[in-house]
Amino acid sequence: MILARVIGNAWSTVQHRCYEGKSVMVVQAVDTDGRTPNGPEFLAVDSVQAGPGDLVLVAREGNAARQVLGREDDPFHAVILGVVDEVDADGRVTPGNAWTAGEGG
Question: Structure pTM?
């Protein structure tokens, strides 16, 4: 599982049939402060109606993504599993909404 920030949406005019009706988000792995990037951006299928600026929990493993989405034969690689309300780490509590879209991270 990866702590990540949703940084945008992805759109496509041509797509694999399994993505029809699904939202695909651009996410950035972050440290427990909710702001510091911790790896490259990647795409994840949204299963919880997350949006830009949300701090989320992501499974970046194809089998987990397919099980959550209920599509065993489809080529999913990552899925957003939940929106994080707050992170309690190192004695610090960071609210999930500590960053908003447009602030630049």
Answer: 0.79
